[in-house]
Amino acid sequence: MTASRLSKVILTAVLGLTLLPPLSANDQNQIIKLDAKINTQKNPGILYLRAGTYKVTPIGGAWSVWGYTTCKHPKGCIRTVPTKFTGLHNNYYVISEHLGAVSVNNKPLRKVSETPKHRMNSYYLVNDTTRAYEVTQPTVYASEASALAGAQSSTFVMKENGRVKFALLDNSRTTDNRGSMNLKITRID
């Protein structure tokens, strides 16, 4: 087994993280798979990226903070507080001290100094200790296919070379979480 292959096996076993190699040596794409029970903010998947602009595209999967789905509508159900419908999410969280500009679906994200209480819309958290953004929306979905169809891409600038962490953000217990998200990270400049 090569050292590169052994490293990937260790990452998968220890972190529950799967890194898939690019399609060719010149390909700028990286794919990261995040497991809803493992890859939370406390144990994110990590990539090392060079300074530049990157696009994050959901390409597979969906996940849930609940062990069951009550949403039956094919285009999703509105998230409410308290919860009226449970279902699948397509949201993801990106963290790096080197983040610059961030946008979702080509619209710049608003900066906030603390995580919004109910996290119904995408936001860019910038304060003394954190630079992170979450792509989210006030919808849960009945199926993985409908969640993926409603997923949003994002773009971020890395001001310097460094680590970028990817997570599925659940601020409660994760024992009942299910599913995963596959994200394609593409350098676009």
Could you describe the 3D structure shown?
The protein contains two helices and 15 strands. About 11% of the residues have low confidence. With 189 residues, the protein is mostly beta strands. Strand 10 and strand 11 form a beta hairpin. The protein has a seven-stranded antiparallel β-sheet with strand order 1-2-15-4-13-7-8.
Keywords:
189 residues; mainly beta; six-stranded mixed sheet; seven-stranded antiparallel sheet; single chain
Q: Which word captures the global form?
A: globular
The overall pLDDT, averaged over residues, is: 87
**What's the β-strand tally?**
15
Main sheet specs: 7 strands, antiparallel
Distance between the termini: 34 Å
Q: Which percent range describes the beta-strand content?
A: 35-45%
Structural class per helix/strand content?
mainly beta
| Radius of gyration over all CA atoms, rounded | 16 Å
Total helical segments: 2
Side by side, the strands of the main sheet go 1-2-15-4-13-7-8
SSE order, one letter for each helix or strand: HEEEEEEEEEEEEHEEE
Percent helix? 10-25%
Give the domain tally: 1
